[in-house]
Amino acid sequence: MLAATALNSQLIGQVNSRWKLLTPALVLDFDALERNIATMASWAMDGQHNLRPHGKSHKSPHIAKLQSQAGAVGLCCASLREAEVMAAEGIEGLLITTPLAPDKAPLIANLVHAGADISVVVDHVDLVAAYGAAAEQAGVVLSVFVDLDVGLGRTGTPSARVAVELAGLINGHPALQYAGVQGYMGHLQHVDDHAQRRERLGRDSRDLQNIVDALVKANLPPDIITGGGTGTHRLDGEYGTIGEFQVGSYLFLDVQYLTVQQGKLGEQPYEPSLFIQTSVVNINHSDYAVTDAGLKSFATDGPPPLIVQGAPKGATYRYMGDEHGAIGFKGSNDIMALGDKVECLVPHCDPNVNLFDYYHVVRGDTLVDIWPVAARGNS
Amino acid sequence: MLAATALNSQLIGQVNSRWKLLTPALVLDFDALERNIATMASWAMDGQHNLRPHGKSHKSPHIAKLQSQAGAVGLCCASLREAEVMAAEGIEGLLITTPLAPDKAPLIANLVHAGADISVVVDHVDLVAAYGAAAEQAGVVLSVFVDLDVGLGRTGTPSARVAVELAGLINGHPALQYAGVQGYMGHLQHVDDHAQRRERLGRDSRDLQNIVDALVKANLPPDIITGGGTGTHRLDGEYGTIGEFQVGSYLFLDVQYLTVQQGKLGEQPYEPSLFIQTSVVNINHSDYAVTDAGLKSFATDGPPPLIVQGAPKGATYRYMGDEHGAIGFKGSNDIMALGDKVECLVPHCDPNVNLFDYYHVVRGDTLVDIWPVAARGNS
């Protein structure tokens, strides 16, 4: 079975090869990626924060290693599969940030037994029991965080009382090690207005601090308080409760994050590095050209793709079914030619990466490498 | 690298194994799939229609072979990659139904040279030239259809005049063979109301017939008129212009197609066969449970997933980010337990299949096989 990588791999190193890719293709600007990684690492170093970036954004051991080289203390994963793939590539300090279905507990314990460095989170007594039994069975000690709900309403313990109860259960279990707490404020990452984000973060951070205080009072002080994201990390850093940051989207940005103000009004320390490249396949209409990238190439939960290169200024992108898009413009159909390459900023980076098998890594106009989206998929 | 198949493959043949899958998982009801294939084959046989089902829905050589065994004359593909994968598995009569970017022409010609049985479509003189040059270079004769725009406004020739021009160019080119025309009415597949669909189909079918008449008059009668889809095939069959049907979604149905009336009011000859199975991972809320299937497990361009099994009657599904969903219900959180398995009908089958690497094929409650979504991905 031939995959797209085989067809494009011969282009690596050729001048202008970025524009000879078979499309649709996921294109990663290596220079911009490196700048984003360095900027985040520098922020963390300045504030003495730890970074445990989230692998669910990139699903790539290549990128995990770049983050590790820049000083990250580990890598977050959102699924068993991501943890498996990253562990197989030697990535350490893995933290699965979502409570898993209890039937996955034995598989986690077996991975740890095989040498993987994986921690997990829990938010219910039944899951503590499942991990405890699995770890005992596998003959390992499993590192466990208590997942706290600090406003997102998704996973996490519903109160300080339950958090203390779970921390105590973990602490008292011979096959479990109490590692700390997780307080991820996913609901605040995309609050566009900086002042409003600061106000809401202050409120939810006080809730988080109150739970931490209750744990300290119960003689269960968390070693690590992990959380944060691209949208809030700088405010979290100022607030001071969170000590370890699960930032992910800063690597790529996307249309959604472009509107989130970082730091001072309008300041944005990170830059877009991830694009979908598509080709024009039909020019028979007077005010739009049809492309080969549709619902199977873009994450459709967010805003439409933003055209950044290859189309007339002001042109817009819309979906035309599973395999097609349309570039709308004012004027005649002489504007674009069959085969023209157009690059769009991805609407929402995490699910968009998940649609592709490969990153086409470029520096300027040259394809320099192809990296698999190795942890793509489910379970 | 361990993939989900390795973990679930040991369950094949075990009683009740459908409910032991690691989730999120794409589940295919083999009995329902077989009934759908048989029903469509029987309709085609009764009306002496040919079937060239669309592989973009399933991307699976396993399913392509089942369709072939039921009498299909070939298989449609939406991409170079799909054609490559299907050809490598020995599937014949492949038709790539979308005009490709011209830089893919040499790859198509090379596949034909290597023995693949692939036809293509064109809707522009430049693409005829690209295919002609590539076929000449590869020393093959490439079979080419003229793609007609009969109301969809996506690809296809804009007029009968251009259709005649392209058919003449193909017919006169030594390395190309004029195979017929394609008139796909994608814009009518989801017109829910049967009477309205019939009226609009009548209008666009007359346009198609007029182009065919112009080709006949120009001494370029199309051997094959290919088109149709799950939503219109029965009306197309009555109308009589289209002779070869590119039906795809009938295999699975989905939430979108459930509302499309087939034949008499409310009659639906096909049945849902494709589901996403997810597990409950959080029960800390009073009126919803959180699951492990979110934006990375569902096609989000359509309606929300429809819960069919495993949750209280009347429960609804909503997305809670990349990896999570929420099952909303009235009542207390005693209704669901951690690890409960819930199955949802997919919102839109084609892009939803594309998110997964494997079909988990079940008969009743037993996992009987695991099939790769072999042509998943892009290019």
Automatic annotation (TrEMBL), chains A, B:
Keywords: Lyase
Keyword Metal-binding: no
InterPro entries, per database record: Ala_racemase_N, D-amino_acid_metab_enzyme, D-ser_dehydrat-like_dom, D-ser_dehydrat-like_sf, PLP-binding_barrel
Alphabetized GO MF terms: D-serine ammonia-lyase activity
Domain D-serine dehydratase-like: 273-363
GO BP, sorted A to Z: D-serine catabolic process
Keyword flag Lyase: yes
Pfam families: Ala_racemase_N, D-ser_dehydrat
Protein family according to the UniProt entry: Belongs to the DSD1 family.
Protein name: D-serine dehydratase-like domain-containing protein
